[in-house]
Structures are given as structure tokens and as C-alpha cells.
Amino acid sequence: MGAGAFTTWSDLARAMRDDLASGNFRTVSSYALPGGSGSITYRTMKEFLDLLSLVEQRASEETGGFDGQIITTKGGYR
Predict the structure, then answer these.
(1) At CA 69, angle to CA 41 and CA 12, rounded to 5?
(2) What 3-state class would DSSP assign to 43?
């Protein structure tokens, strides 16, 4: 999918996961950010995975999803 414009973080995360699965991440090297707010560029697999993690976090926030973290303090949950 690659460098096309994305309207949501969820769309961008999906495209990045698709590119990872197909191997296209090796040739894409950058993605446009949602809302036309710039782009993200990577050079290595580690950078791609770090960016994917960030994009998936933003997608989770966008949809109000639970990120799997529960913080406990003094025996309670918050």
C-alpha cells in the first residue's frame, strides 16, 4: 500500500501490517500521516517496527480501545 494518504491511524496501522506481512515494507520506506500532518520515514526493520508500534498505539487511542495495560497502585486499580 505504501505512501498514499491515510485518513485514520487505524488505516495507517492496517497498511503497515499488510506491508510487513507481504514484505513491501522493504521498498516503501515512508508513509503519509493521517490528516496530512506530514510523513514518517524509516530505514531499518527496527525503525519500521518501532513506528508500527507507535501507529498502533495512536490507532488504539483513536478507537478508544484497551491497550492491555492495567496499572495497580496500593492494591487498587486505576
Answers:
(1) 30
(2) coil
Name the burial class of residue 76, with classes exposed (0-12), middle (13-18) and buried (19+) by CB atoms within 10 angstroms of its CB.
Answer: exposed
Tell me the CA distances in angstroms from 16 to 7, 34, 62, 71, 77, one per residue in order: 14, 13, 17, 29, 33
Question: How many beta carbons lie within 10 A of that of residue 52, not counting itself?
Answer: 20
Q: What mean pLDDT, rounded, does the chain reach?
A: 82
What b/e readout covers 59-71, taking b as 16+ CB neighbours within 10 angstroms? bbeeeeeeeeeee
Please determine, for residue 17, whether its predicted confidence score (pLDDT) is greater than 80. Answer: yes
Residue 15 half-sphere exposure toward CB, CA atoms < 13 A? 21
